[in-house]
# Entry
Amino acid sequence: MKYIAAIAIILFIAVGCDKNKNKNENKFDRELMLKNYAENLIIPAYEDALVALNELKSQTDNFIANKKSANLELVKSAWLHAFEEWQFACMFNVGPAAEQGLNKSLNEEIATFPVSETKLNTILSTGQFSVTDFNRDARGFLAIEYLVFGGIDVSNETVLELFENQATRATYLQALIVHCINRVGSVLGEWNGAYKNQFIKNNGTDVGSSTSQLYNEFLKSFETIKNLKLELPLGLRPGQTQIEPQLVQAYYSGYSMNIIKKHTQAIENTYLGRSKSNVEGSSFRDYLKTVVGGPELISQTLSQWSNVIAAQNSVPTNAPMSEQIIAGSQALVDFRDELQKHTRFFKSDMSSLLGIAITYSSGDGD
# Structure
């Protein structure tokens, strides 16, 4: 009887501890986390992207009025800056930036790649275009890149001739930039309006919650780097039999790795709840600290992430990524492999510990 009583006492204490543990886990303030993401990461990212896009418009308008090589260089620099800024906003496809009706997510609407040269050249030859049709691969940041850079390894002199001889080129370029400004500005306006509070208050973990939507877009964006920006041009996606260097993002400018580096920085910032000015607030990492196994997962995640960044930094940025792929770059393959190893930490492990369902399919079984 004493033995049975002792066991009963132990079980009582254990159950009590579990209850307290669960109670402590439930204390995490998701509303505070969502507030940090909204005010310190999401809204500033859209603001910075909009400022950069307006600068791109200003430089483009100046170039169209005075077609000189020096002015074209300013447009190219403004495009790169705007697209780099976009990497910090591209994952936040929730609320006003989410897929709605016939519109895809904002990132798909203005950053689809690769672009269709066939569609773009048809538009330029006929002068007929729409910025609201289904031809998302003929508009947005990457279509702007094609028009400004003129193609792969095209000289400024050739681009200047294209603009001089094809009036539709300038018309379409300006229309595309205005379209990006309008789309980003519209989303930002809703965030600065009623949506911010809706986002913060919707603090559950169910499929429709802000936490779930934000986590899924964060994860999808991470996998975009691995699956589309690296594996696809490297020829490593299921069903591919050869390299396809022309499928890199930012193919015509040669700035693919510069863009990827900004994108991975944005992923890291989101995981840590860190603003671009390096101020950290409540985050997914803090959320993990409150669940059983969370601290261990954080340690493993940050350790592998350091491997990802080390591999990324081993890839040169002074040569176009497409050329490196053709040359058989092992550094790019190693970078992809480190991202592959990291997938489980952001995906299956994090989803399991936080109890957030993955609501999209990456199509690769990771």
